[in-house]
Amino acid sequence: CVIIGGLGALGVLHFEFLSARLGVERFVLVGRGVRDAALQSVTNAMLSSPEGDDDDVEIKQCSGYAFDVDVVAADCADERQSRAVFALARPVALVLHLGGVLHERAAIDMTRTTFIAGTEAKISGSLHAACDAASDVFMCSSSIFGVLGQSRLASYAASNAFQDALCAMSDRAAHRWRGSGAKRFIAVAFG
Predict the structure, then answer these.
(1) Cβ within 8 Å of residue 133, ≥6 positions away
(2) Residue 123's closest CA among 162, 149, 169?
(3) What is the CA radius of gyration of the chain?
(4) What is the spatial distance between Cα 103 and Cα 155, in angstroms, rounded to a whole number?
(5) What is the pLDDT of residue 132?
(6) Three-state DSSP class for 140?
(7) Which of helix, strand or coil describes residue 128?
(8) pLDDT tens for residues 108-127?
(9) What residues form DSSP beta bridges with 184?
(10) Rounded distance, CA 47 to CA 122, Å?
(11) Pick from 49, 69, 89, 169: CA 20 to 30 A from residue 40's CA?
(12) What HEC string does 14-68 produce?
């Protein structure tokens, strides 16, 4: 399981659920930057696991639990870094794209640069991950703002609408694709 945005709050929550409740055995947690607080969240999630023992914890690569974890600092919006992540992670059954940037600014005040800064993680990251991961399932965490919009989060709303459309169109076309890319595409719009 590759979790893009795996070091953020939503990523750690999914990591805890998938490891404790669904028995997923291998994780690659991807974040743009590996910060101490994020690593501590992952470590805390691992320590709360019923398997393993506290002395076996290594932050970068963890074993001795019912699962293995690789923590990777990479920007999946960058095509080369995305390919490297999925080369490390193969085989991949599930990709969760939970990353994103909240770039708050009124739509009227937005420039091309600020729009790109607010959309790149979700748009480019989703495109690269969807193409690079030969997985069974690719899931995005989208937002209701992709449907309703939001005047102070225009780039965030646009990138969520993109993820919804990417998953809808890719899932319809997935049966025609041969080779790379996921087999199923799901966008979950959180409220």
Answers:
(1) 2, 86, 89, 92, 95, 181, 182
(2) 162
(3) 17
(4) 7
(5) 82
(6) strand
(7) helix
(8) 899 999 999 999 999 999 99
(9) 137
(10) 30
(11) 89
(12) HHHHHHHCCCCCEEEEEECCCCHHHHHHHHHHHHCCCCCCHHHCCCCEECCCCCE
Report whether 166 contacts 126 (CB < 8 A): yes
Token pair for residue 150?
Answer: 């939001």
Residues forming beta bridges with residue 153, ordered by sequence position: 105
Note the residue count of the chain: 191
- Res 44 pLDDT > 70: no
- Angle in degrees, CA 91, 97, 66, rounded to 5: 50
Mean pLDDT over 60-68 rounds to: 58
What's the pTM?
0.82
- Residue ranges of alpha helices (H) inside the chain are 9-20, 36-47, 79-89, 112-132, 145-148, 154-173
Q: Nearest CA to 110 among 165, 145, 154, 144?
A: 154
Q: Put the strands of the sheet holding 137-143 in their side by side order.
A: 61-62, 68-73, 26-31, 2-4, 94-97, 137-143, 184-190
CB 9 within 8 A of CB 100: no
> How far apart, in whole angstroms, are the C-alpha atoms of residue 112 and residue 150?
18
Give the pLDDT confidence of 79-112 residue by residue, as tens digits: 999 999 998 888 899 999 998 888 888 888 999 9
- Structure tokens belonging to residue 33: 């930057």
